[in-house]
Amino acid sequence: MLALVIFAIAGISDALDGFLAKHNHWESRLGSILDPIADKLLLVASFTTLAWLGLLPMWLLWLVIGRDLMIVLGGVAYHYVVGQFELLPLWSSKINTVMQILLVLLVMLQQLWITEFQQLVIIGKWLVVASVVNSGTEYVLVWGLRAWQQMKKS
């Protein structure tokens, strides 16, 4: 129960922070770096814990981590090979984050009260798989094209 409350507070405070930053134009380069890192830490910690407890399959954890590593390593490569860039999350990434949060919440709720959530958890797992693959592929295509266009100009 405590884990569910903490996860909910973290998610709500992150959403509120993002809304206030955009609404009041409090955006900064540091914030654009720290916010996704905080999101990833929360989700990777949650997925790791749930996989360790046997509530999520280990392969799903590795898929989620693999996508994140690919994006980070791609960003580092882009920075050192092509040049500085503005961190702009793709919509598919936002959808992926929502899918991951919903899956964590579903698994927690299933453990607490609602064992009938089994089918929803299964559907949630496959929606996360689809969103991870879609988002990861889109990052490779979009940023690969941008890198190619930038390098072509040089």
Write the layout of secondary structure elements.
Layout (H helix, E strand, L loop, with lengths): L1 H22 L5 H24 L5 H24 L9 H22 L5 H36 L1
Helix pairs in contact: 1-2, 1-4, 2-3, 2-4, 3-5, 4-5
Brief synopsis:
By secondary structure, this protein is mainly alpha-helical. It is built from five helices and no strands.
Care to describe what's here?
This protein has 154 residues and is mainly alpha-helical. The chain has one domain. The chain is 83% helix and 0% strand. The protein is built from 5 helices and no strands. Helix 1 packs antiparallel against helix 4 and helix 4 (91-112) packs antiparallel against helix 5 (118-153). The termini are far apart.
Indicate the structural class. Answer: mainly alpha
State the major sheet: none
Number of strands: 0
Strand content: under 5%
Order of helices and strands: HHHHH
Gyration radius, rounded: 17 Å
Q: Helix count, per DSSP?
A: 5
As for the number of domains, it is 1
- N-to-C terminal Cα separation, in Å? 55 Å
Shape: globular
The residue ranges in which pLDDT falls below 50 over 5 or more consecutive positions are none
Helix content: over 70%
Arithmetic mean pLDDT: 89
